[in-house]
Amino acid sequence: MELDLLKTLVLVGDAGSHAEAARQRGVTPSAISQQLKVLEAQLGVPLFERVGRRSVPTIAAQELIAQLREPFERIERVVTAARSDFERVSGRLTLGSPRPFGSVYLRPRLIALLRKHPDLELVVEFGVPSQLEQDLVEGRLDLAILVTTPEHPSLTSTAIAHETFVAVASPEYLRKHGRPATQDEFLAHRFIVYDRDLAMHRPWWRAAFGARSEPALSIACAVASLPEMQALTEAGLGIAVLPDYLVGPALERGRLEALEPAGASRPARNAIHLGWRTRALPSARLLAVRDALSR
Question: What's the CATH fold of domain 163-270?
Answer without folding.
Answer: D-Maltodextrin-Binding Protein; domain 2 (3.40.190)
